[in-house]
Specification:
With 408 residues, the protein is an alpha/beta fold. The protein has helices at 17-22, 36-50, 64-73, 89-100, 118-127, 151-160, 211-214, 229-237, 247-263, 265-286, 314-325, 351-367, 376-387, 398-407; strands at residues 6-8, 56-61, 81-86, 104-109, 133-139, 141-142, 147-148, 166-170, 189-193, 204-209, 303-307, 327-331, 340-344. The strands form three sheets. A seven-stranded mixed sheet has the order 2-10-9-8-5-3-4, with helices on both faces. The chain has a four-stranded mixed sheet with strand order 1-12-13-11, with helices on both faces. Strands 6-7 form a two-stranded antiparallel ribbon. The structure holds pyridoxal-5'-phosphate.
């Protein structure tokens, strides 16, 4: 097919040409005396992305899922209780993994389209006076439903209950695109991967661990081998890895970290908020459709899940977009299969690029019989982006910038 494929699944995301070029390297000896320089470039950069001075970052040749496993197997023992909420396919899968490992998961099922139920967490933690709960799991950005949760509030719930449980956060689709604060939020394990906000291909599992979490290693009895953090720590100390690292991805990661520093994390967060607000304008004001996220407080700035009307299969919209317009949209997963399609807007993205997803989704919806007005999504996004500017280098939230623009 002529022209390019437009990729808007919320991971893998678009890899910038700069990163692509940085990964075109000859293989080298990963035991050479020069190799540690690479590791020593990456680790401080990752700490800045996690916003931590105290945490220790880890890089595994795996996808994000591998780091879910690393987080639990290095800290917990069979039969331990963990608290987790389920509100989408990814929060569900982490729970399923915990159960496969023989953990006792206290599951709080909430509506898909909402997020971490902080009030319920607080209540459960207050009543757990025996401190049976060893870890609290929270999915920062549920990619399946386009829902973001307040991780700082989960930390406050733990502190208010004076509960010592570890705080584990899935930051796979939020790191480097939605404000994430490892130290401020007292996170103990933050799990991420390379193929979302970090703009790399899939293949790196990225983890950040607190000292409190690392101190659990000796007494944690869950089986672990490949994902043993102590082996990784021992090798990383001298700048090496315990096994062959994914060399091109590491060079790509150096470039990604450079790009992130050039733009600035706060500017990146503001850009994601601003781009997402344009997509939401297209969905709600333009098309008159609903997001899966039930309230504005749950709106994700990295992915929007658009509910299709009753009687239409969301999978048909996705197939039509792909087969006819070479546009890749995200599918509805599990409970949401057929009910929605998703537009990923994270990583290397700008207004006009994102317009292609809005225009293409609009065409595919019309082809599938959804009665949106042709051009209405594009018009609404255009109106939003033309009237709301993100001044680069201005350390203001988009909300403040919008107020400024309105006042001007
Ligand atoms: C993508 C994603 C995962 C899974 O990551 P893989 O790299 O595919 O293993 C986990 N959690 C969330 C929230 C995700 O978006």
């Amino acid at each position: 097919m002529a022209g390019r494929n437009f990729l808007f699944v919320p991971g893998p995301t678009n890899v910038p040409d700069r990163i692509m070029r940085a990964m075109m390297v000859s293989m080298e000896d990963h035991r050479s005396p020069d190799f540690p320089l690479l590791t020593r470039t990456i680790m401080p950069g990752l700490k800045r992305v996690f916003r931590t001075e105290r945490g220790t970052p880890f890089v595994f040749p795996s996808s994000g899922t591998g780091c879910w496993e690393a987080a639990i197997t290095n800290t917990l023992s069979p039969g331990d209780t963990v608290l987790a909420a389920r509100f989408g396919q990814f929060s569900h899968l982490w729970i399923a993994m915990c159960e496969k490992h023989g953990l006792n998961v206290q599951i709080v099922d909430v509506d898909w389209g909402t997020g971490v139920p902080v009030e319920q967490y607080a209540e459960i933690l207050r009543h757990d006076t025996q401190h049976k709960i060893k870890a609290v799991l929270a999915c920062h950005n549920e990619t399946a439903t386009g829902v973001s949760s307040d991780i700082g509030a989960v930390r406050r719930a733990l502190d208010d209950a004076k509960h010592p449980a570890l705080l584990f956060v899935d930051a796979v689709s939020s790191l480097a695109s939605i404000d994430f604060r490892f130290d401020d939020w007292g996170v103990d394990m933050a799990v991420s991967g390379s193929q979302k906000g970090l703009m790399l291909p899939a293949g790196l599992g990225i983890l950040c661990a607190s000292q409190k979490a690392l101190d659990m290693h000796a007494e944690a009895k869950l089986a672990r081998s490949y994902f043993d953090l102590q082996d990784m720590l021992n090798a990383n100390k001298t700048g090496y890895f315990p096994y062959t690292p994914a060399l091109p991805l590491l060079y790509g990661l150096v470039e990604a970290l450079t790009m992130i520093e050039e733009e600035g994390l706060d500017n990146i967060f503001a850009r994601h908020e601003y781009l997402a607000a344009g997509v939401r304008a297209a969905v709600q004001d333009g098309w008159g459709m609903k997001l899966c996220a039930k309230e504005p407080k749950w709106h994700s700035n990295t992915v929007s899940a658009v509910m299709v009307p009753e009687g239409v299969n969301g999978a048909d919209v996705i197939s039509r977009a792909y087969n006819r317009y070479n546009l890749s949209l995200g599918a509805g997963l599990s409970k949401m299969a057929g009910k929605l399609f998703r537009i990923g807007h994270l990583g290397d993205m700008n207004e006009v690029h994102l317009m292609s997803a809005i225009a293409g989704a609009e065409m595919a919806m019309l082809d599938c019989g959804i009665k949106v007005r042709a051009g209405s999504g594009v018009a609404a996004a255009s109106e939003f982006w033309r009237t709301h500017r993100v001044p680069v280098g201005l350390d203001a939230s988009v909300a403040e910038q919008i107020a400024l623009a309105k006042a001007a």
